[in-house]
Amino acid sequence: MELNGRPVSTGELSGLALQGYGHFTTMLVTDLRVRGLRLHTERLSRDCKTLFGTDLDIARVRELARRAARARPSPSIVRVTVFDPSLDLARPAGRSLPQILVSTRPAPTCEPEPVSLGVRSFSRDSPTVKSTSLFGSIRQRRAAQLEGFDDALFVGVDGRISEGPTWNIGFLDGSGLVWPQAPCLPGVTMELVSRAAQKLGVPVSTRPLAAVAATRMAGAFVTNATTGVRPVAVLDGVHLPRPQVLGRLAHAYRELAGDPL
Q1: Non-local CB neighbours of 31 within 8 Å, separated by 6+ positions
Q2: Alpha-carbon gap, residue 109 to 103, rounded angstroms
Q3: What is d(CA 203, CA 177) in angstroms, rounded to the nearest whole number?
Q4: Closest Cα partner for 27 from 211, 152, 187?
Q5: I want to staple 72 with a disulfide (CB 3.0 to 4.6 A). Which of 47, 76, 197, 245 is the partner?
Q6: pLDDT tens-digit profile of 201-238?
Q7: Looking at the chain, which runs of residues are DSSP E strands?
Q8: pTM over the 0.70 mark
């Protein structure tokens, strides 16, 4: 773990740990290439403006991420976190000096198992920002696991499905691929899967979905950069089918060429 290209001290991490004010993106790096790299860097730039009101040096981000990835066997997971170690809790509107924290871990080496989801009523604060404040999401994931599920699927007060703690969810019906229409984080993998679907001739749409209606779909999957396309086996106790098109989507996503980091 490095801050601006050097080992980070515990003192420099204290603000992030105690206040949790920052944003991040997580990338799967294979042979120094990243699927949807431009989407990742655009997210970092956008969220930095939103949280700190300043521009982010994306060339420096790429340099630091590349350096970290070189130090790990390929493939690896590289997380870029942007935060201000000197943030004043009493005056967060003061001048911000966001810094770049890069951490790495080994990438999964096997296909992800199908996941079971329990529906939880929850909406993240500022859902379009990939923030480091994960308290609410982790709490809902824990609650779902205590009920016997692998993870939580969020629905808003209006009953509409939105997202999960660290992923987007897509559904398949007779008309093609359907993304839920609700406030959520527009994921990089979500966008890449949409592009892959269109190349396969699978129509892509967005519409409101209630949990009960979702259990009658022809299939479902969750997406993020770490696991790619992961089938949903169970939604709130209802077993979902796994249509052939889901395998085609997963394969098409895996075959997408990465961009040089």
Answers
A1: 74, 75, 258
A2: 19
A3: 6
A4: 187
A5: 76
A6: 999 999 999 999 999 999 999 999 999 999 999 999 99
A7: 2-3, 6-7, 22-30, 33-34, 76-83, 99-106, 115-121, 151-155, 168-173, 176-180, 204-207, 219-224, 228-235, 238-239, 259-260
A8: yes
